[in-house]
Automatic annotation (TrEMBL):
Domain HTH luxR-type, chain residue ranges per copy: 198-263
Alphabetical keyword list: DNA-binding, Transcription, Transcription regulation
PROSITE patterns in the cross-refs: HTH_LUXR_1 (PS00622), HTH_LUXR_2 (PS50043)
Gene Ontology BP terms: regulation of DNA-templated transcription
Taxonomic lineage: Bacteria, Pseudomonadati, Bacteroidota, Flavobacteriia, Flavobacteriales
Single GO term (MF): DNA binding
Name assigned to this protein: HTH luxR-type domain-containing protein
SUPFAM superfamilies: C-terminal effector domain of the bipartite response regulators (SSF46894)
Length: 267
């Protein structure tokens, strides 16, 4: 396991750190912390990664739920030790695809408008497994276009019962061209390996059906959705039935899981 962790760390240093000449700490304002907290509900945490030296410029206190070490001892290598051993190979491939996408495929102007996301398995200090979703987006670039700082958000999505897959998605934050469920098995980004099926499922839904899916993903019950949208419980049930018929999913939990992993729904 340590060999795999070292290999991933060495890859980051070679492909990211070696491209950045000067150290530049990211200044985290209270406003930034407040905004970031909105995107890390439940069992989640976030950090700012300084790619010049792979140091963590800031990490939210919530990391203590998943990693039992003092703040000053948190490193990227320590975070990698929380990944379930059997999943480290998948994480390595996804990180290679992410680097390839941001460094080779995008122009300098495009880099700050994308986020990457993928799932992995984590083992907490009590040896319990969690299915996690990581979302990563560049915050700043060097003059040569290399990424200097990255915001990384890790969220527990175990309650969605999502199976960890070899896929990684790249979402255009301006709503333009996204790449959903790219197969990472070869460790390189290939746009032809993107699978638009999940996105098409969402686009095939009506505006009202999308509203209901979003509310379901936030834990709303059928009656709660009826109250929120000022419609009858019967109407909500009918919409839910139509949603499943259109999507081909066995239940709404399965569909929500697909939408979250595909970046269609924000967790």
């Amino acid at each position: 396991m340590q060999d795999q962790i070292n290999r991933i760390s060495d890859f980051w240093r070679k492909e990211y750190s070696a491209q950045i000449d000067e150290y530049d700490a990211f200044e985290v304002s209270e406003q930034f912390k407040q905004i970031a907290s909105f995107f890390t509900p439940g069992l989640s945490y976030y950090y700012i990664l300084n790619l010049h030296n792979l140091e963590i410029d800031f990490i939210s206190e919530d990391y203590r739920n998943l990693l039992d070490v003092p703040r000053e001892e948190v490193t990227m290598e320590k975070l990698l030790t929380t990944v379930v051993k059997e999943d480290l190979g998948n994480v390595e491939n996804k990180e290679k695809v992410m680097q390839d996408f941001f460094s080779r495929y995008l122009t300098k102007e495009e880099k700050l408008k994308y986020k990457a996301l993928y799932s992995y398995q984590l083992r907490d200090p009590k040896k319990r497994k969690h299915r996690m979703l990581i979302q990563a987006t560049p915050l700043s670039l060097s003059q040569n276009g290399s990424i200097k700082h990255m915001l990384c958000i890790h969220s527990d999505i175990s309650h969605y019962n999502i199976n960890v897959s070899p896929y990684i998605s790249f979402i255009d934050l301006k709503g333009e061209k996204s790449f959903i469920n790219v197969d990472s098995s070869d460790g390189v980004f290939d746009p032809s390996l993107s699978n638009p099926e999940v996105e098409n499922k969402f686009l095939n839904l009506t505006d009202r059906e999308r509203e209901i899916i979003k509310l379901l993903s936030k834990g709303k019950s059928t009656s709660g959705i009826a109250d929120t949208l000022n419609i009858s419980v019967h109407t909500v049930k009918t919409h839910r039935k139509n949603i499943l018929q259109k999507s081909g999913c066995a239940n709404t939990a399965e569909l929500i899981a697909e939408f979250i992993i595909g970046g269609i729904l924000n967790h």
